[in-house]
Design a protein that fits this description.
Layout: H1 3-32, H2 34-39, E1 46-51, E2 54-58, E3 63-66, E4 69-72, E5 91-98, H3 100-103, H4 113-125, E6 128-135, H5 141-152, E7 159-164, E8 174-175, E9 181-182, H6 198-209, H7 233-247, H8 253-270, E10 274-279, H9 294-305, E11 310-312, H10 314-319, H11 335-352
Parallel strand pairs: 5-6, 5-7, 7-10, 10-11
Antiparallel strand pairs: 1-2, 3-4, 8-9
Helix pairs in contact: 1-6, 4-11, 5-8
Length: 361
């Protein structure tokens, strides 16, 4: 056999073998979601968009487990089971907007305040209520406004509730080329390489991370509370940064937040939509003698200037502090905290409507 023929035969074997290996890798990568299993992060949960102020949404139709939670996303990109595009006759529809708190980080969908609020309102009034969970991890006031305008209004709510977190002044993350949320806005992508090939994405991931889980370089102790402390050192550090920002808002993020809050009010009024903004406390503001409440005072000032209906939830949480822990970490209320949010919102919504109620869940 000539050398040229041997080279052609070897090249053919390489092409065929490579094709078989690539196909097998693609099948395995897609069937077992290898990247997600290696990383422990639900990369499939998010889909990037090309909208300027809406960098990503929940992927419609996803059903998965992450960090001990069962997460089902319906056809409208909302956490929970499927719902009609418009509310059925006789049903009062509420749209709950927010970040990971509204989403229900650490909880089943039925334990998060949107589902509890529906039960509260129904129990107190005897009427039929739907509360749609439009919470998305990482969202801020700007992305919540964009979601309301581009997706939420089409669902026909009569009321919108925004759970305002004290970090909502910060820029929302974007989806980067590895399919992971990142604060590097220059790394934003409008599509994922996994849309073309999951196996290619896996190889790229392994090269970029050297096989380590995302964020594996951070010491585990930073995420764990020390004996006698309620929150970890990292939690307390990040919370202090937030409080300091409210004291000295020295960059453009502040105006973006103010404009977004005003935009929520303007959009609600233009569409005859009732809007309530519930201001969530941080865990380190609860159960202490002299909490730093400057963030709440400044947000309430914005609400007054923009004629927004804002509900400060700190007094509700502070009154219940003696009953037990209300937070998983410094930003995320636990199941007991979500029950407080739902009850406070139900009372606020019904009191403003002139409805006197009792009971609840």
């Amino acid at each position: 056999m000539s050398i040229a023929r041997r080279l052609r035969t070897a090249a053919l074997f390489l092409v065929v073998g490579g094709s078989i290996a690539f196909t097998a890798g693609e099948v395995v990568s897609r069937a077992f979601h290898v990247v997600d299993r290696l990383n422990g992060f639900p990369r499939r949960l998010f889909t990037p968009t090309e909208r300027p102020h809406l960098p990503y949404v929940l992927t419609p139709g996803i059903d998965l487990w992450m960090r001990g939670m069962h997460v089902q996303v319906n056809e409208h990109g909302l956490r929970g089971s499927g719902v009609a595009t418009r509310p059925p006759p006789g049903v009062h529809r509420v749209l709950a907007l927010g970040d990971s708190v509204t989403f229900g980080e650490g909880l089943e969908a039925e334990e998060a305040f949107p589902a509890l609020l529906a039960r509260e309102l129904a129990a107190r009034t005897g009427a039929r209520y739907e509360v749609l969970n439009a919470g998305v991890e990482g969202y801020n006031a700007e992305t919540e406004l964009a979601f309301l305008e581009e997706r939420g209004l089409a669902l026909g709510p009569e009321t919108a509730v925004v759970a305002f977190n004290l970090n909502d002044y910060d820029y929302a993350p974007v989806l980067g080329p590895l399919g992971i949320l990142t604060r590097d806005r220059a790394a934003r992508v409008s599509s994922s390489p996994a849309d073309v090939s999951e196996f290619y994405f896996l190889v790229r991931w392994l090269v970029a991370t050297r096989g380590r889980p995302w964020g594996d370089s951070a010491p585990a102790a930073a995420f764990t509370a020390r004996p006698g402390q309620r929150f970890s050192d990292l939690d307390r550090y990040v919370s202090a940064l937030r409080k300091n920002y409210y004291a000295h808002p020295a960059d453009g993020r502040w105006q973006v937040m103010v404009d977004a809050l005003r935009g929520l009010g303007e959009t609600a009024r233009a569409h005859r939509l009732r809007l309530v903004i519930a201001i969530l406390p941080d865990g380190d503001q609860i159960g202490v003698a002299d909490p730093d409440l400057l963030p709440q005072r400044k947000v309430l000032g914005i609400c007054a200037d923009a004629a927004l209906d804002c509900l400060d939830l700190h007094p509700v949480f502070a009154a219940a502090a003696q009953d037990g822990e209300l937070f998983f970490d410094i930003m995320h209320p636990n199941a007991a905290g979500h029950r407080l949010i739902a009850r406070a919102l139900a009372e606020h919504l019904l009191a403003a409507a002139g409805f006197v109620s009792g009971g609840g869940v």
